[in-house]
Specification:
six-stranded parallel beta sheet, Rossmann fold, about 45% helix, single chain, alpha/beta, globular
C-alpha cells in the first residue's frame, strides 16, 4: 500500500489569462502586418501571461544541469563507460563543455548539481552537492532504481534548489542533465507515462550502433517485463508517475522534475531542453498538469522519441537543429529568442506612436 503523504506535493496554478486581450492588442498594434513576427508573437504572449505583465522581461536566467549515474549503465544500455558522467561534471566545472560556451554566450548562469554521481568530488566551487545516492541508482533490470524515500528526496532537493535560484531574481530557468545511461531511463519513463510503444521511445543515445540499439531495446523490454505494478498503458496518474519515476528514473531526472514543479509554482518560465529533460517534464506534468503552460520548448532533438514526446504534450519547439547532446545546450541556444520576443513587445513602436498608417 502506498501512502500519498510520502510524496512531496506541488500546487501549480492555472495560468492567469486576464491580460490576454490587452497583450494581444499590444502585439497586433506594432508596426507590422498582423502575425508577421510569427512564433515570436506567440512567445511574447506566453511570456506576458506567465509574468502577468504587458512588458515581460528576461531577468537573471539560469540553466540548471543535474548529474547522476544509473545502475543499468553497466548492463550495456550506453555506448560510453559510466566514468564519463563524473568526467563530464569535471569538464563543466572547468568551463570546457558545450553548455559552458553556450550559456556564456546567452548570458545565462550555470548551476551544476550532483544528484547522485558515483564519484566523490569533495567541496568544489560551482558544484552543488545534493547527492541522494553515492553510487547512483540501483539497476532497474533487477528491481527499483530507487526507493520511494530516495525518489521523494530527489524531488524535494530539486524543488528547494529551484526556489533558491528564483529567490536570486531569476525568472527563466532552463534545464539540462548529465548521466551515462539516462536516455534508456528516459525511454522507459516516456513509454510508461504516455503509453507510446517502447520501440518508438528508444534511440541510440550517445551513439549506439545497430547491434547496441537492439541490445538496449531488449534490455528495456526485459526491465518492463519484471515490473509487477505497472499501470495501464497510457494515462498514468500523478500517483503512478511517482512510482514510475522511482522504478526507472535517475536521481538527476527526479531532481529536474522537482525543480520544474517548484519553478512553475513560483511563476517562472521553464525552458525545456531535449529528450531526457522532456521525460522529467512528463513526470512533472502527470503530477501537476498546469505546468505545461509555463513551458517553452527550446528544440526538437535528434534522439528518437523526442518528437513523439513533444507531439504527446502538444508542444511546438522553437528550434530544430539536429542536436542530441543534452546538457541544456538546446535551451541555451533558444534563450535569445525569448529576449527577442520581449524586445519587440517592449521596444517596437505602435502604428499610433510612430505615425504609420495602418492597412486600409
Amino acid at each position: 500500500m502506498h501512502s500519498p503523504a510520502a510524496w512531496p506535493r506541488f500546487a501549480v496554478a492555472a495560468l492567469d489569462r486576464s491580460l490576454s486581450t490587452e497583450l494581444q492588442q499590444k502585439i497586433d498594434r506594432k508596426t507590422k502586418p498582423t502575425g508577421a513576427l510569427g512564433r515570436l508573437e506567440d512567445l511574447a504572449l506566453q511570456l506576458g501571461l506567465i509574468q502577468r505583465r504587458l512588458d515581460p522581461a528576461i531577468r537573471h536566467p539560469h540553466v540548471l544541469v543535474c548529474a547522476g549515474d544509473h545502475g543499468a549503465a553497466k548492463a550495456g544500455v550506453s555506448a560510453y563507460p559510466q566514468d564519463v558522467t563524473w568526467q563530464m561534471v569535471e569538464n563543466f566545472l572547468a568551463g570546457g563543455a558545450a553548455i559552458n560556451a553556450l550559456a556564456g554566450l546567452a548570458g545565462m548562469q550555470l548551476v551544476v548539481a550532483d544528484a547522485g554521481v558515483a564519484h566523490e568530488f569533495g567541496a568544489r566551487d560551482g558544484l552543488r552537492n545534493l547527492k541522494v545516492g553515492a553510487g547512483g541508482t540501483a539497476n532497474y533490470l533487477d528491481g527499483a532504481a530507487m526507493s520511494e524515500a530516495e525518489c521523494a528526496l530527489a524531488l524535494s532537493r530539486g524543488a528547494d534548489l529551484a526556489r533558491e535560484i528564483g529567490a536570486s531574481g531569476c525568472n527563466v530557468l532552463a534545464f539540462g542533465e548529465m548521466g551515462i545511461g539516462n536516455t534508456a531511463s528516459a525511454s522507459l519513463l516516456t513509454h510508461c507515462i504516455t503509453g507510446l510503444p517502447l520501440a518508438d521511445c528508444v534511440g541510440r543515445g550517445t551513439g549506439l550502433d545497430d547491434a547496441g540499439l537492439a541490445r538496449k531495446q531488449a534490455l528495456l523490454a526485459q526491465a518492463l517485463a519484471k515490473w509487477q505494478e505497472r499501470p495501464s498503458a497510457g494515462g498514468a496518474t500523478g500517483e503512478d508517475a511517482y512510482r514510475i519515476l522511482a522504478r526507472f528514473g535517475g536521481f538527476e531526472i527526479a531532481m529536474l522534475a522537482g525543480a520544474m514543479l517548484a519553478a512553475a509554482e513560483a511563476g517562472m518560465v521553464l525552458l525545456i531542453d531535449g529528450f531526457i529533460v522532456t521525460a522529467a517534464l512528463l513526470v512533472a506534468a502527470s503530477m501537476a498538469p498546469n505546468i505545461r503552460d509555463y513551458c517553452v520548448f527550446a528544440h526538437c532533438s535528434n534522439e528518437a522519441g523526442h518528437r513523439r514526446q513533444l507531439d504527446w504534450l502538444g508542444a511546438r519547439p522553437l528550434l530544430d537543429l539536429g542536436l542530441r547532446l543534452g546538457e541544456g545546450t538546446g535551451a541555451a541556444l533558444a534563450l535569445p529568442l525569448l529576449r527577442a520576443a520581449c524586445a519587440f513587445l517592449n521596444e517596437m513602436a505602435s502604428f499610433e506612436s510612430a505615425g504609420v498608417s495602418d492597412k486600409a
